[in-house]
Write a structure and sequence with these properties.
The protein has about 120 residues and is mainly α. Helices cover about 85% and strands about 0% of the residues. It has 3 helices and no strands. It is elongated, with a radius of gyration of 28 Å.
């Protein structure tokens, strides 16, 4: 089950508070730790920053893909409304104010090709 936005926000706030508390305790005791343990903590911090940077990059990529997906769905809705539904009506023998021609179909195929090429880019 997906957590509600407020639950997720509360969890993030609580996690940040706990992390700050742990960091304060580590800072207070840092010089009392053996040198090798201090070195490990510094390495852990550097690796954590690297992981967070990479996760942020992946989240940004996912958000960009989601935006492109939404744009594609918007295109599909427009194509359905402007082309496919009128084409079906025309094929069923209905008289349309603006008929659909082979040229329109060719333009639609080119547009779909362009959108698919953008997806691969």
């Amino acid at each position: 089950m997906k957590p509600k936005k407020t639950e997720s926000s509360d969890l993030l706030t609580l996690s940040n508070q706990l992390l700050a508390e742990v960091n304060r305790e580590l800072d207070a005791r840092f010089m009392d730790l053996p040198e090798d343990v201090r070195a490990l903590l510094v390495q852990k911090g550097a690796l954590t920053q690297t992981v967070i940077r990479e996760l942020t990059r992946l989240i940004e990529l996912a958000a960009d893909k989601a935006k492109k997906h939404e744009d594609l769905l918007d295109h599909c809705a427009e194509w359905q409304r402007e082309f496919f539904i009128p084409l079906k009506a025309q094929s069923d023998g209905e008289k349309l104010d603006q008929e659909i021609y082979l040229k329109d179909l060719e333009q639609m195929i080119e547009e779909v090709g362009r959108v698919l090429a953008e997806r691969d880019a």
